[in-house]
Every structure is written in structure tokens, then in C-alpha cells.
Design brief:
This protein is mainly α. The chain folds into two domains: 96 residues, Fumarate Reductase Iron-sulfur Protein, Chain B, domain 2 (Orthogonal Bundle), CATH 1.10.1060.10; 58 residues, no CATH class. The relative contact order is 0.13. The model has no long low-confidence stretch (mean pLDDT 93). Bound molecules: iron/sulfur cluster (2 copies). The site of one iron/sulfur cluster (SF4) has 15 residues, from helix 2 and helix 3.
Length: 168
């Protein structure tokens, strides 16, 4: 069975390929090493780094953008370290997430985390309980963040505006 790639599919693929870190995707020869070593793929049957690479190669934007699979990648870089072709699947996933956000989409959980970062300087609230647990582990209290500074950086890059405007 032959697979044809549409003009829109090529445009989508080229955008992902032009993202720093994602350039080598066309070197993927589908050996599956990334999938067999990926800690997330070991637990989630639908999450297949090899398949993600293949879908990008064939410009399958809709299939990549639907669902939550992109957000399961833990960014551990195991796939990159083990890939014989030096394809950086984790950076490809980052490029896909960026593309998704630039098109107005963000998983609600991530939206809440990013809003938390802008408000508190951390993705979740650090309270007395957290610091007591740190003390039990001989760790110093978590530093008090410069929340205004964090929000200013997130705003100045345009990232926070995109997060706030995003829908699932
Ligand atoms: S390990 Fe590399 S070459 Fe093999 S399927 Fe994964 S990305 Fe492609
Ligand atoms: S970076 Fe993501 S895709 Fe790669 S091995 Fe880790 S969890 Fe899997």
C-alpha cells in the first residue's frame, strides 16, 4: 500500500522540521529502538515514539494534534540517547507541542500549571507542608521566587498570552 502526502501535510512537516532539534526526523528508519526503551511506552500502549516520528514524516497533522498523547512524553531523552540515527524524538515532541500552542491548543492540565507558574513562580504552591518535607530530607526551604519577574518574562516572550488564549 502506498502512502501519499498532501501539500498541507508537507507544509506541516516542514514547519516541524524547521524547529531546532527536530531537523533529523527524515533520518528515522523506523527501527523502533526508541519505543522499546521509552519508559512511557512501557506503560502506555498507545504512546509510541516511533509512530510519532512516522506521523510527522507523513505530515499527519490531525492525528498528531488530537488526543493527549503528546503530553505524555517525560522529556527524559532516552529515545535520543539510544537512536542509531540521532533522531531527537523528545525535541520533535516539543516542536509538536509548540506548534499546537501556536495554533491555540493546550491541554487544560498544562494550562493550569503554566498559569500557576506565572502566579506563584512554581507550577504548584510551596507551602509549610512542602518545606517541612524538605526539612525532613535535610533540604533547605524552597527559595521564594520573584513572581513578578517570572510573570514578566513569560509575558514578554508572548508565551503567557498564548497560554491564556488557548483552548483544548
Ligand atoms: S530509534 Fe531513531 S531511527 Fe529508530 S524508530 Fe526511533 S527515531 Fe526512528
Ligand atoms: S523523551 Fe519522551 S519519547 Fe523519548 S524516551 Fe523519554 S518519554 Fe519516551
Amino acid at each position: 500500500m502506498s502512502i501519499t502526502i498532501t501539500t498541507e501535510g508537507k507544509e506541516f512537516r516542514d514547519k516541524i522540521l524547521s524547529t531546532p532539534g527536530a531537523e533529523r526526523i527524515m533520518n528515522c528508519y523506523q527501527c523502533g529502538t526508541c519505543t522499546s526503551d521509552c519508559p512511557v511506552a512501557k506503560r502506555v500502549e498507545e504512546f509510541r515514539p516511533r509512530k510519532l516520528a512516522r506521523l510527522v514524516m507523513y505530515g499527519q497533522e490531525e492525528r498528531l494534534m488530537e488526543g493527549d498523547l503528546l503530553y505524555l512524553c517525560a522529556g527524559c531523552y532516552t529515545c535520543y540517547e539510544h537512536c542509531p540515527q540521532e533522531v531527537h524524538v523528545s525535541e520533535i515532541v516539543s516542536a509538536l507541542r509548540k506548534y499546537s500552542l501556536n495554533n491555540g491548543h493546550l491541554l487544560p492540565t498544562f494550562k493550569a500549571l503554566m498559569n500557576g507558574m506565572a502566579e506563584m513562580g512554581y507550577i504548584y504552591e510551596i507551602d509549610e507542608f512542602e518545606n517541612e518535607m524538605r526539612e525532613d530530607d535535610d533540604l533547605p526551604s524552597a527559595p521564594v521566587p520573584d513572581t513578578e519577574g517570572v510573570e514578566a518574562i513569560m509575558r514578554s516572550t508572548g508565551f503567557l498570552d498564548k497560554v491564556e488564549a488557548s483552548k483544548r
